[in-house]
Design a protein that fits this description.
Blueprint (H helix, E strand, L loop, with lengths): L1 H78 L4 H19 L4 E7 L2 E4 L15 H8 L5 E2 L3 E2 L6 E8 L6 E7 L17 E5 L5 E5 L7 H12 L9 E3 L5 E8 L5 E7 H5 L5 H43 L3 E6 L4 E6 L11 E3 H9 L7 H7 L2 H9 L4 E10 L2 E10 L8 E8 L1 H55 L4 H32 L8 E4 H18 L3 E7 L4 E4 L1 H17 L6 E9 L4 E10 L6 H4 L23 H11 L3 E7 L3 E12 L10 H17 L4 E5 L3 H13 L3 E5 L2 H10 L7 E4 L8 H9 L11 E5 L4 H9 L4 E4 L4 H12 L12
Parallel strand pairs: 19-21, 25-26, 25-27, 27-28, 28-29
Antiparallel strand pairs: 1-2, 1-6, 3-5, 4-5, 5-6, 7-8, 7-11, 9-10, 10-11, 12-13, 12-17, 13-14, 15-16, 16-17, 18-20, 20-24, 21-22, 22-24, 23-24
Helix pairs in contact: 1-2, 1-6, 10-11, 11-15, 12-13, 13-15, 16-21, 18-19
Membrane topology: Multi-pass membrane protein
Keywords: ATP-binding, Cell membrane, Kinase, Membrane, Nucleotide-binding, Phosphoprotein, Transferase, Transmembrane, Transmembrane helix, Two-component regulatory system
Subcellular location: Cell membrane
Amino acid sequence: MEKQQRRALNSIVLSITTLVVVATLLLVGIGLVRDKMMRNTQQMGMSLAESYARETQSRLDGFARVFDMAWMYTIRGVDANMSEERMQEGMAEYQQNVHELFGGHVADLYAVIGGQIVAANPWTGDGVYDYSDTDWYQRALASPDEVIFSDVYEEAITGDQIFTLSKAIDTEGDVLVMDVYINQGDVLDLEISLPSTYHFYLFDTDGRLLYRLIDRQATDPAYAEQLISGVRDGSLFAYDAQITDPKGVARGVYYAEMDNGWTVVMTIPIQEVLMGEKDPVIYSLIGVALIAFVTLLFMVVRNILNLRRLAETEKTIRVLSDSFFAIYRVDFEAGTYRAIKTSPDLRGTFAESGDYDMLLAQVKKRVHPEAYAEFEQDFSLKSIAQRVKENVLDYGGDYQRMFGGSYHWVNVRTIYQKHILPGEVILCFKDVDVEKRQQMQHMMILQEALDTAKTSAKARNTFFNTMSHDMRTPLNAVIGYSELIRRTPGDAEKVTGYIKKVEFAAKQLLMLINDILEMAKLEAGKSALDVKEFNLNEYLTEVCEMFRAQAERQQKHFELSVQIKDPVVKGDSFKIGQIMNNLLSNALKYSCEGAEIKVEARQFDYQKHSKFQIVVADTGIGMSEEFLNHIFEPYARETHFTPRTTEGTGLGMPIVKSLVQQMSGEITVESAVGKGSRFTVTLPLEVVEQHDGPVIGAAAGEASGEAAAEAAGSLAGQTILVAEDNELNMEIVTELLTMSGVQVIGAANGAEAVEKFQRSAPYSVDAILMDMQMPVLDGCGAARAIRRLDRPDAAVVPIVAVTANAFAEDVDRTTAAGMNAHVSKPIDMDRLLEALALCWAGKTPPAPAPGE
């Protein structure tokens, strides 16, 4: 034993001595490699910094080149006494070139000419702007032949960081100027491909940090100041000089100065520097030393690792054992058991080993009565032996077992491994009460979800059954009254009445279809917001006025109260109109003669977005408390007894709620049978404090109404090209237009429409009505083709989309294709006349109203 200990000690001493020698060789080699790597990396870093400095300078030179072109244009304009308006247009063109070149609004171009500011984009206060004391103005006059680059400074009006290019014009005191916004577009978005740990900075002559390319974190101002100070005072010039960044990482610093005094700085972690270039000789020596070192270390540590491995194995077995509250080895051939671990409540009730039937009897006493017979059968010696014979290695299941007066779920298993324990199985018990109850709860949730899905499917089936009835009713009216019209051609009064009823039934059917399509779009998530500025006061008034007339016809009192101090807002006016149309339609539909319908709108200030509350209340038939719980569910409709039959698709209120939620708003409802209903919609809308352009309002509706009134008399003698592939639709449009004195040129597809327009004499076609979906060439393609034709009227001839594609995205498509207006099918002749009149007047027709 002593010899073995002495040998082990000598082996350890020898191993330690050898390890010290090898470690010394490694340290010397690492020192040599480190020194050489640091020197090489300095050369590489300085070269990279110079390269990026040249790239940055090239980007600035790009501004200078465009600026020189604008300067030459300005000189020619000054020499030619060009008007200020023409000068501004030219500057705007050059400014647009800069924006396209550098990706966005990156520069403002203006000039000092004759003591006045002439700008591509004039700004408020340019007439009193004191430019004479600015650095860029004085330097431009001092060096008239040079493009002057200023340092970065804060723009006086917007507060943005900018630098300025300026150059004197030949006339005395005149200077061309361009402000460049360094944080816009691609001004300083350099195409630098560096590892994520390499940091890149750009400083101006005052040491201000202009640009950084690091790991998406803000740069510490103190660290940036320390970095540029060390560069400029030379303290970071040495090849092994380094700086510690805010994260505590030591970095080498490499830099280069640009022509305009800006400085490019790049830092590389010292750790990565040392892992850079590899010298084969040195690394070969280090590799040999490392192999020897690792081999010796392996020999020294191997025994320790073996001991640790045994200890870890023991811990693992203990952990696995702790997950089971009882473990037994069962010899199914001899009919005996041996306890490895016993349940606390069974300790002392039987021996640690003995007859298996005795163990089974004790365990069965605690099994739930419902599982007793099955447990006894499945875990008898006969059953265990049969499973082993069938090579079932793992068998078990869950049952309830008594613990301290209550039942817990337990998992019991028999595990068999022939090569490890031949003739024996492991019988183990594990408490799985928490997992089992969670699983059962999850199953309950799934069952509830299944029940909900079945309920939804039932509601959907009910909806389709109802929809079948609701759609067949107007269809039956259309077909029936059409037959009556055919059979009574001589009775003009009856025919007129039948026609009105056909129109009413057709509008009912159109409303049903619109609701179904709108709900489908909302469920598919394809209804996007179209946020624009509009006057909420005027818009609500305009919407309500359409329903006021209907209320008067039905002898109902209609009242509107608007208390909005900031009427001009940003939002989707179209969807707000859809919400109002649904709520007001319901208020009129579900109220009787003499009822009151009130609309109230008020404003509440809330941070950046004010909240606008719109209340639609009526004294109609109301809704039952039971239905209020389902009012926003698709396909649900009130069925309580009322003086009126239930109308609609059951989709109106789900559409309203989806639209309100899409705009981050809220909707609540209060109602009682026989007392009426009150809907409150709250929407957050951004207030537009200053507004110079036109907004949506009542004035637009009045103008369009006047245009529609004038249109009817303006059609006589006009020539209109109609592109329509459906023969019935072509016949309807042709007859309607011909009745108004229009000469119609028909085209069966988009390609034919382009060809006929191209063959016509210039300005002989007064307007084009274009369907969207046609063979050969669709309406959008035909419109684009017509706009590209080389003839004087191609760009100005009014093109009106007359199509069944009536959603907002369809309007956007026709507008992008060059069409002037959009009229949806079924054709409303008044709206078509209105659109044509506005087009001929050079105005933009309003977008289709909700539901049109």
